[in-house]
Design a protein that fits this description.
Oligomer: single chain
Largest sheet: 7 strands, mixed
CATH class of the largest domain: Alpha Beta
Shape: globular
Structural class: alpha/beta
Order of helices and strands: EHHHHEHEHEHEHEEEHHEEHEHHEHHE
CATH superfamily of the largest domain: Type I PLP-dependent aspartate aminotransferase-like (Major domain)
Strand order of the largest sheet: 2-8-7-6-5-3-4
CATH architecture of the largest domain: 3-Layer(aba) Sandwich
Number of domains: 2
Length: 404
């Protein structure tokens, strides 16, 4: 049996999304900026995709949604444009973010530091999140932007974005959130939450790879990252990727229709898998309170079993999982998110992320429980150093938001 449990890295394209995209590869293929009928023929589909995206995230008519190649581009666009608009050409010099952002945010912040920007990297608490009062404490009159993810890609922990957004609104500071792991997985309504910019990516909710979007509240000015044309109102130059825009709109519509039912079904499978592993194996821990996690995500640590060794056994059993962010998958260092929440160095080398989707079946969950348990027992049996260590009350595991 082939089982894919790496849906936080990417998802399969929903067959209905694929079907919606097909005509725009070879039947309706004109450049949408051309004035002839071959170009204008795609306009209704683009408009529909834009409307689907607005509806899915609760954007208003006053807001802009600009399609990008991915969320990495959108994250870079916000950070670099705020640097240009409010730091180089303004009186600000400070950005606030967290230690556990996606590499596309952290690497861009490091680049901006090289340009003289001051960046504060907030530590997370023992549940792997940053609370609003912590953000408030580090905002100064020189702060141009706060950039904090909506949900973490490794732990699935959901940040208090509504509270953080209100702090930023009160302080008059721009607020950007990387919404990649939230959009299409949990309710996102930007009518109810104050966010100035939000990045998203279609391949995280069963859309195609190579298409994302940036939400811009109240159509506020933002220097373009790409120059050269009038596409997307002059905000983002380049010929529109019509098939993928259509695919993203359709994928968002499908993900957010009957979302509560979809979330409930995924959560039930996730919880059954998590409970089985915690109940069967000793010295195994999950990270973060699952009531505040995206409903599909488990980050599990197995003391005495290296994460890479575990992935080898799972891959041999035809199970796809990961040790964390796909954008840092070749890095064999300790899991930085686990270190950030206070896990010891040994545990931080053992984290395995299991991320389900709405296409995950009960039979697949049963198979993973069996093969995962078998792999842990096999790897521990050949370990020369493993011995069960039961954490004491208030010990390291409990103190850092790790549950057993």
């Amino acid at each position: 049996m082939n089982v894919y449990l790496d849906n936080n890295a990417t998802t399969m394209v929903d067959p209905a999304v694929y079907e919606a995209m097909i005509p725009f590869f070879s039947e309706v293929y004109g450049n949408p900026n051309s004035l002839h009928r071959f170009g204008t023929q795609s306009h209704p589909a683009i408009t529909q995709a834009i409307n689907q995206t607005y509806k899915a995230i609760g954007a208003s008519d006053n807001d802009d949604i600009v399609f990008t190649s991915c969320a990495t581009e959108a994250n870079n666009w916000v950070l670099q444009s705020v640097w240009i608009d409010h730091i180089l050409h303004g009186d600000k010099n400070h950005i606030v973010t967290t230690e556990i952002e996606h590499p596309s945010v952290l690497s861009t912040c490091k680049f901006l530091e090289d340009q003289g920007v001051k960046v504060t990297y907030l530590p997370v608490n023992d549940q792997g999140i940053v609370e609003a009062h912590t953000v408030k404490a580090f905002i100064t009159d020189k702060t141009a932007l706060v950039s904090i993810m909506w949900a973490n890609n490794e732990t699935g922990m959901i940040f208090p974005i509504a509270e953080i957004g209100e702090v930023c609104r009160q302080k008059g500071v721009l607020f950007h959130t990387d919404g990649v792991q939230a959009v299409g997985k949990i309710p996102v309504n930007l009518q109810e939450v104050h966010v100035d910019f939000m990045s998203m990516s279609a391949h995280k909710f069963h859309g195609p790879k190579g298409i994302g979007a940036l939400y811009i509240r109240d159509s506020q000015p933002l220097s373009p990252l790409l120059h050269g044309g009038d596409q997307m109102g002059g905000r983002r130059s380049g010929t529109l990727n019509v098939p993928y825009i259509v695919g993203m709109g359709k994928a968002l519509e499908l993900a957010t229709t009957d979302m509560e039912a979809k979330m409930s079904a995924i959560r039930a499978k996730r919880d059954r898998l998590e409970d089985a592993l915690l109940g069967t194996l000793e010295d195994v821990f999950t990270v973060g309170d699952r009531s505040n996690r995206t409903p599909n995500t488990i980050l599990i640590s197995i003391r005495g079993v290296e994460g890479e060794g575990m992935l080898w056994d799972l891959n041999t059993a035809l199970i796809g999982a990961s040790t964390g962010s796909a954008c840092a998958s070749e890095d064999l260092q300790a899991n930085s998110v686990m270190l950030a929440i206070g896990a010891d160095n040994e545990l931080a080398h053992t984290g395995i992320r299991l991320s389900l989707s709405r296409f995950t079946t009960d039979e697949e969950v049963d198979y993973v429980i069996d093969r995962f348990t078998h792999a842990v027992k096999r790897l521990r049996a050949i370990s020369s150093s493993y011995a069960i260590v039961q954490p004491t009350e208030g010990g390291a595991a409990a103190a850092c938001g790790i549950h057993h």
